[in-house]
Amino acid sequence: MSNLYIIGAGCSRNYSSDQNIITDLSPPLNEDFFKMAKLVLAKTGMRYDENFMEDINALLKKLSKLYGLDSNLSMLDSEKLNLEDVMTILDVDYKMFSSLYININKNQSSPHLKLLIDLLVRTLDYALKGDCCRKHNKIVQKMKKNDLILNYNYDMLFDIPLLNSKKFTHEGYKINFYRTYNKGEWNKIKESPSNITMLKLHGSVNWIRCDICGSILNLGHDKVDGLFGYIPFTCPKCKSNDSHTSRMIIPPLQVKDYSDKDIAYLWLKADSMLSDIDNITIIGYSFSPSDYASTSLYRRYASNRNIEPSICLVSPTNRLVDRISDLFNVSPEVISQYSFDDYLETL
After folding, report:
1. How many domains does the chain have?
2. Does some domain include residue 25?
3. Which of 68, 88, 117, 138 has its CA 20 to 30 A from that of 162?
4. Are residues 75 and 166 in the same domain?
5. Domain shared by 262 and 183, yes or no
6. Long-range pairs for 130-134: beta carbons < 8 A, 24 or more residues apart
7. CB burial class (10 A; 0-12, 13-18, 19+) of residue 122?
């Protein structure tokens, strides 16, 4: 019997390490991303990267005008700012009112949006420095052959223990990587079947695409972003530099763009694989009503079933229980509810 694990940002929030170098820094959520990003900008060597900070200061000036805030790092503590709203406003502002977008290139995203994605990846890098999380390891140990993970997180908190467990290989991503980076070299991925499938429906911090030749590259197994900003990048296929690459990440816009054909394929794969699922464990995913792709995915799953699935909800709230009951067409009484720590005790 196959199990489904639905993983959201609330699961990453449970990461802990004694090696984190920045006090109070945690894996960011939508509502506190800018507070976490401020800690990284203020307390790491990033502040000495002149080109990057020049772009950050331009972003701060843009946000100060849009939100009526002072254009310095302290503005990032404002309760007005959350990542989804800011990214959506910047995207709309660029596509509706930018002459660069209207007159030159409608295929490019806002430079401010691209910068925020880069800042998000860097913030995750620092928030997740340290050893693999024992809590995530414990969840991975529970997983077994034919299980499916729908992971909405960009980070690698599940990737690393899964790969180390030998239950999971690159085949389990269902992404056709051209090469993977390891110990300073680009290596061809060894094709071997994966017992577990993990579909990262919003992309991953370690996936990039060369915009020149279209190759999809995997930056390797480390949580730390080992290429951009640290060592020169050259595409292993066409030899282009990092100015011609893009991260395979779906930004947290209110209306998300799933036009990337490789990411869209993951959603189609999820839809087909859900038919075999009877048991569902949900950890840290909020089921936002604005994420229409997920709403459609789970309503399709429920509409094709005659029997209620077994659902385990970790870190529940009343609103979330009602939302899941509606989406999966089950009565709230059949949803098992646990705190994160209590759930770990059941494993």
Report:
1. 2
2. no
3. 117
4. no
5. yes
6. 130/17, 130/18, 130/19, 130/20, 131/17, 131/19, 132/157, 132/160, 132/161, 132/164, 133/14, 133/15, 133/16, 133/17, 133/157
7. buried
Q: Which domain holds residue 74?
A: 30-127
Contacts of 201 (CB under 8 A, 6+ apart): 150, 151, 152, 250, 263, 266, 267, 270, 293, 294
**Chunked mean pLDDT (size 10), the chain, 347 residues:** 93 84 90 97 91 94 95 95 96 82 62 93 89 92 97 96 94 96 85 95 94 92 49 84 87 92 97 95 94 96 93 95 96 94 95
CA nearest neighbour of 234 among 210, 207, 204, 203: 210
pTM of the model: 0.94
Question: Residues 176, 263: one domain?
Answer: yes
CB 34 within 8 A of CB 77: yes
Q: Same domain for 235 and 147?
A: yes
